[in-house]
Design a protein that fits this description.
By secondary structure, this protein is mostly helical. It has a single domain, classed as Four Helix Bundle (Hemerythrin (Met), subunit A) (Up-down Bundle). The protein is globular and about 50 Å long. The mean pLDDT is 93.
Length: 227
């Protein structure tokens, strides 16, 4: 079996395992299976996974499933868990909030808007992956894959659209599951992504040929007109 095929299979198993783990944790925290908004959240996630399965380039999936990646930045190895923990905590806190009634549940209109935000955010994340064959799970210069600047699709508007999509989906998760308390870990994870964006952007400007010129054309990292 070729290495690329093994990486594809490995990534598929990683995604399936992570999704199952999150869904199990969600309903364990909720204390019961009869939670309509919890199932709506799971359903949106499954639709997104199916969409990714249909549209993502195999080379992007294979890179994300690669076991040993070269040139990973040390700071990213330290920062990534600090983002992952609150990102995972957001739906768990929402489930506990629903179970223990820490705060009044949000209206169904806000929850629907939250689910729509998850779909839109993850849609942007997927668009970024389909537009950038170097979209990776870690910050590194991919010399092994002839890393080059990407300016197509959403990269025409901001330099890190994948992070924008993920941040939107984090806040959508809190609102979609009806929890104001879950906005706290969502905000912590979003703050981590802002830090990662700044560090990654500096790395790319210093180490990726052509990126500094691209940054002069596409001025904003995450939010057009702001930063």
């Amino acid at each position: 079996m070729k290495q690329a095929t093994r990486n594809l299979l490995r990534r598929g198993l990683q995604v399936a395992r992570n999704t199952l783990f999150l869904d199990v944790c969600l309903f364990l925290a909720a204390g019961r299976l009869r939670w309509a908004w919890g199932w709506a959240y799971v359903g949106v996630g499954l639709v997104i996974l199916l969409l990714n399965l249909l549209v993502l380039p195999p080379e992007v999936v294979a890179e994300r499933g690669q076991r040993r990646k070269q040139n990973v930045k040390t700071w990213d190895r330290l920062l990534s868990p600090l983002i992952f923990v609150p990102a995972l905590a957001a739906p768990i806190v929402a489930a506990l909030d629903w179970r223990l009634e820490w705060a009044p549940q949000l209206s169904w209109l806000i929850q629907l808007a939250g689910l729509a935000a998850i779909a839109l955010g993850q849609g942007l994340f997927t668009w970024a992956m389909t537009s950038n064959k170097f979209f990776s799970t870690v910050v590194r210069i991919q010399a092994d894959r002839e890393h080059a600047v990407t300016s197509e699709g959403p990269y025409h508007y901001v330099r890190h659209p994948g992070y924008v999509g993920y941040i939107v989906s984090l806040f959508g998760t809190a609102l979609g599951l009806g929890s104001l308390w879950a906005l706290i870990p969502a905000a912590l994870a979003a703050s981590g992504f802002v830090v990662r964006t700044a560090l990654e952007d500096r790395t790319l400007q210093h180490e990726l040929p052509g990126y500094a010129e691209y940054a002069r054309r596409t001025r904003y990292r995450l939010l057009p007109g702001v930063w």
